[in-house]
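Researcher: Next entry in the queue.
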Amino acid sequence: MNPYDRLASLDASFLHLERPEYPMHVGAVSVFEGAPFFDADGRFRIDEVRDLVMSRLPLMPRFRRRLMHVPYEQGRPIWIDDEDFDIAYHVRHTALPRPGSWEQLVTLTTRVQEGLLDRDRPLWEIWCVEGLEGGKVALIQKTHHALIDGVSGVDVATLLLDMSPEYTPVGASGFAPAPAPSASQLLLDTLRDRLTQPAEIARSVRSMLRGPRRALERAQELAQSISTMVTRHAIAPRTSINVRSGRHRRLAVVRVPLSEVKEIRAGLGGTVNDVVLAGVSGGLRRLFAHRADDTEDLQLRVLCPVSVRSEDERGSLGNKVSAMFVNLPVDNRPAIERLHAISVQTADLKERRQAVGAEMLLGMTDYVAPTLMSLAARVVHRQPFFNLVVTNVPGPQHPLYMMGARLVEAFPIVPLTQNLSVVVGILSYDGTLHFGVWGDRDACADIEIFASGIDDAFTELRKVAQERG
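Model: Structure for this entry, 469 residues:
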């Protein structure tokens, strides 16, 4: 085995998916109390912010690494230390004209998020924004999906933040980059790895044959979970949100108290995630009604990423995700019936372990040649299997601080693909669900209708829960 930090197949797939009009980074816009970020003369302490980030980078080595590609695309890229690492490039400082409004912050956020990350540098940026009304400060983050998934993104943010407002300034830590291999050596080692893989596969097969009963159980488990994906609903209906998206974006946000979601769950049944999906379903219903779309018997097929990151993998980077497909009813049925329909589905999918089958299928891509992965990525942009992505990431339910400043709220941003004009990212933090509704600027000009529909759907569900209680 060689010591290379090679991208996993799923991580590399996000590089293949990326186009100038479809950046494949995950992002967030966060708002902090502002005062601790300024010195006695009112100057933003950008050097101290950079020192803080530098001091935490040893806990996240890949944030000081850049990509190195294997010659002739004979293998997945590796991460190598960036010998010219420049913290000032990655942690930037800007300002809104005071007093900057929320609308101005959203405009700046969309402009920052629309641009591609430079693949010749470590694949992340943080923009510190001063000038917000109320003296607040915002952080706009963007990190390539090849580097993190949603859950590990929360872990990284937790590493940068503190659980207490007590803060002691830190000095920047030293960094001695390891030399990169030569292109010829990387190619040679990669080809050697590929030649040894069949032997590893053969050993795995022999291991399975030694325990035929367990092998049969695993095969049956996989068949059962895959069967949940191959149904008459496997091809998603084409709708007005499934059109070709362009290069420019819009952002709308929704704030829902977690206590209200739990109240709905207690009164009407289901899980917290079921209630969240019912809220999104209600928002879609409002959007389609506004567009005068036909929604009779319409159910949208939604991709819900599922973390398969174990506890001992928390804090590690890369993508550890699988998926579940849920049909969201957007017809004119009552809100409680939408919730019950979703709850029945998700309970059945969990029992038949759909996410396990999806995880095993994704794992098979480890044996796919990079050139085929590139072709597959083009197909994914035109995939017919789902209408929408809804990702719900649990965050810490207690206040976090940066340089003594309390994090007030944080809204996630999930990348679009070619035939998705809107996606929904959700982050729970300190008692609130923060929805980041991210859409194409032209195809989803009515994104605020969708966001307000989500908000109203939770209000309606809560009212029903209270009436039944």
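Model: The domain at 233-248+258-390+441-468 is CATH 3.30.559 (Chloramphenicol Acetyltransferase).
Researcher: Noted, moving on.
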